């Protein structure tokens, strides 16, 4: 059996100790049920119960590391999804603003008026459950103008 390089030496000792602690009671159980037609199943249920109890009563650094990695992975996926959604919103706002500025170049210097002029179009295009407020569109226009200018 290959050793897991991510398992630290003290974690290996803890796991080995846990297995030894379970060993004697399981051996006694195996002796008691020897000859029973369901002895394999009884041992399996005993092992499962021991694992469940142990996992809820004592800290397992390996399981904790797996949980932490899962939390980090989920957070990264959520952040990536938000960034993609935010980029789409910015693209829709930028496109609507550029169209509005082509029709009325004076709007380019007036972010609030631009936001008010494009709000309906932006919200229709995004089809969100909660429409973007004019102030939000204005803030995104301002952010866009700082990044591009």
Describe the protein in words.
The protein is an all-alpha fold and about 150 residues long. It has two domains: about 10-60; about 80-149, no CATH class. Helices cover about 80% and strands about 0% of the residues. It has helices at about 10-30, 40-55, 60-105, 110-125, 135-149. It is rod-shaped, with a radius of gyration of 31 Å. The chain starts with 8 loop residues before the first helix and ends with a helix. The relative contact order is 0.07. The model has no long low-confidence stretch (mean pLDDT about 80).
User: Can you tell me the residue ranges where pLDDT is under 50 for at least 5 consecutive residues?
Assistant: none
What is the straight-line distance between the termini? Answer: 60 Å
- Which strand-content bin applies to the residues? under 5%
Q: What structural category characterises the helix and strand content?
A: mainly alpha
Number of helices: 5
- The gross shape turns out to be rod-shaped
The helicity comes to: over 70%
Mean pLDDT: 78
The ordered string of helix (H) and strand (E) elements is: HHHHH
Can you count the beta strands? 0
């Amino acid at each position: 059996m290959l050793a897991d390089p991510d398992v630290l030496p003290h974690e290996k000792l803890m796991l080995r100790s846990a297995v030894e602690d379970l060993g004697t009671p399981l051996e006694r159980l195996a002796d008691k049920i020897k000859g029973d037609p369901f002895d394999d199943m009884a041992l399996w249920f005993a092992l499962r119960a021991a694992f469940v109890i142990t996992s809820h009563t004592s800290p397992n650094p390996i399981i904790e590391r797996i949980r932490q990695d899962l939390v980090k992975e989920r957070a990264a996926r959520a952040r990536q999804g938000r960034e993609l959604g935010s980029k789409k919103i910015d693209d829709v706002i930028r496109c609507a603003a550029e169209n509005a500025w082509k029709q009325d170049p004076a709007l380019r210097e007036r972010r609030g008026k631009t936001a008010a002029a494009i709000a309906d179009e932006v919200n229709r295009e995004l089809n969100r459950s909660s429409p973007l407020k004019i102030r939000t569109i204005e803030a995104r226009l301002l952010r866009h103008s700082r990044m591009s200018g």
